[in-house]
Amino acid sequence: MRRILAVVAAAGIACGTASVAHADPAVGFGYTSEAGAYPFEGSASWTADQVDVWEYGDAVKVNAESADGWDWARLELSAPAGQQLHEGTYANAAVRQQNSPQLATPGFIAFRGTKAGGAGACAAPDATADFTVSRLVRAANGTVTDLDVTFVLHCSAAATSGEAHFHR
């Protein structure tokens, strides 16, 4: 009986991780980079009240900014051309330039900056990203009200892993 309860508890913990993230995310936006990664370096996180999400054109944009505006990061996520971003996994997304047209493959844009050091964006021609949208809810007017996304960016040989949670 104890073994059955242990298996049920372990399954609940394994399956419940995503549910806990939806209800009470640990961070609004956070990342950790391997040495040499760009444009993200080291690690950082912002609280849920420092994150905003909106949809413009074909991209869902995630903006994180410290209360004083000193430190910030942005992601832009898009589905392949002709599709709207939805829940699911997007593998080998092309890392594209800001305001570039939607591609036949999923798109991913990443910016990172500080007032002291300016801003950087991943623009390597062979850069890719994998991201999973585990929750994306839009209001009747199309406004994004809930978003949970994890990502791995390969702008160079080094990788950056992160997540964003937004719940209005």
Distance between the termini: 42 Å
Helical proportion, percent range: 10-25%
Assess the beta-strand content as a share of residues. Answer: over 45%
Q: Compute the gyration radius: what is it?
A: 17 Å
For the residues shown, what is the average pLDDT? 83
E-strand count? 11
Number of helices: 1
As for the number of domains, it is 1
Stretches where pLDDT is under 50 for at least 5 consecutive residues are 1-23
Shape: globular
Largest sheet: 11 strands, mixed
Order of helices and strands: HEEEEEEEEEEE
Structural class designation = mainly beta
Brief synopsis:
Residues 1-23 form the signal peptide. This protein is mostly beta strands. It has one helix at residues 2-23; strands at residues 29-33, 43-46, 51-56, 59-65, 71-78, 88-95, 107-114, 118-121, 128-138, 144-154, 160-167.
Describe this structure in words.
There is one protein chain. This protein has 168 residues and is mainly beta. It has one domain. It is 13% helix and 48% strand. The protein is built from 1 helix and 11 strands. Strands 1, 2, 3, 4, 5, 6, 7, 8, 9, 10 and 11 form an 11-stranded mixed sheet that branches. A hairpin with a 3-residue loop joins strand 7 and strand 8. The radius of gyration is 17 Å and the shape is globular.
List the helices and strands and how they pair.
Elements: H1 2-23, E1 29-33, E2 43-46, E3 51-56, E4 59-65, E5 71-78, E6 88-95, E7 107-114, E8 118-121, E9 128-138, E10 144-154, E11 160-167
Parallel strand pairs: 6-7
Antiparallel strand pairs: 1-2, 1-11, 3-4, 4-5, 5-7, 6-9, 7-8, 9-10, 10-11
